[in-house]
Amino acid sequence: MDRNGSLFQWLTLPPAVAVATVFVAGAMGSPLSAEPVNPSFWGMTGLLFVVLSALYGLFIVHGFGVGLLPLQLVAQGILLCPLALSRGARMFQWVGVIMAVCGAVALVNLYHYRRRRPGPAAPKGTDETEVRLPVPFVVTDGEGVVESVSSGMLEAAQLPLEAVKGQSVAVLLTPGDATATLGGRTWDVIQRPMEDDRYYFQLNERVAAPAPEAGATALTDPVTGLQTFRYAMMRLDEELYRTRRYGHPLTVLLIRLVFSAAAERDPDSREAFVAYGALIRKSLRTSDVAAPSGDRELMLMLPECPAASAEAVVKKMLGLLGTLNQDHRSLSEVTALHVAASFESTDDVPNARSLVDGLIASMARKYTLNAQ
After folding, report:
1. Per-residue pLDDT tens for 352-365?
2. Residue 276: CB partners within 8 Å, gap ≥ 6?
3. Which positions, given as ranges, span the membrane (predicted)?
4. pTM, whole model, 2 decimals?
5. How far apart are CA 235 and CA 212, in angstroms?
């Protein structure tokens, strides 16, 4: 609707419609039945009529067309009450009362309906222009024009949203290249086709994260040298968002080393666990995450790893234990427990906390954790 209103709406202001109301009341009334109306009643009626006319104009200006008819009923009904008496049309006095009451009830219902009504939902399949996530990624159409970009990508490129929105992805990176340089840093580029001929690009920084300042949240576990569990959970939430929104495959794996009672008391068991974690970290991709999730337990998050590839990854991770047997005697008395979950569609994707709790519960059901 035009914000300034249509000509027809302005022509239906209550004072204009009141001309017809006065004419009808006069035509249907009788001078013999006319009664005098107290001037104070006329004054109150006139004041209300002016206020309602001003409100009618505001409704037009703000595009609230659905409220014009109820407001018109209130204004004309209030005017008709004293007018019917003065013109000798007493039966129209009750018509005026009914009009005013019905209009007021309709306005109250409209007010409460608009307060409870949720905001308009985004059409299915559309993307926000900017997604507030720290992971640097961008989604383009088939021609390479940017459709959606994360805040992390804008921060990495040191560009405002206006410089990227609707532009070629070349302002950020070169499609097909394995690396990109943004903000003075080198990034690995993950490029993946999506539905509807769209493309997804994600950046993963190649350099190691700097040591955190005093008081800052650490990204590296001081004991194992892997990422901290808190950081891993943050990344897991981000990757689950990508899976939930775009259908990207994701595999999450829990590996728990259960030593015999004698080996558990041996300090070598802790060293073996740390060495195993370091070996896993070296065998993973830059985009993967490995973090200690409990005592002698590791959580691995593998983006872009579908269920078909998960079994091979699990076999590879467990096979790494055999390469450490000669250096760590405690590994001769260890059992490696594992459980994995893979997601490849946008349906039934949990949040990070629920997923990890579910994996822990699955491991408890799958194994008897009482190795001797």
Report:
1. 898 988 888 888 77
2. 257, 298, 320, 321, 324
3. 7-29, 41-61, 68-85, 91-111
4. 0.45
5. 18
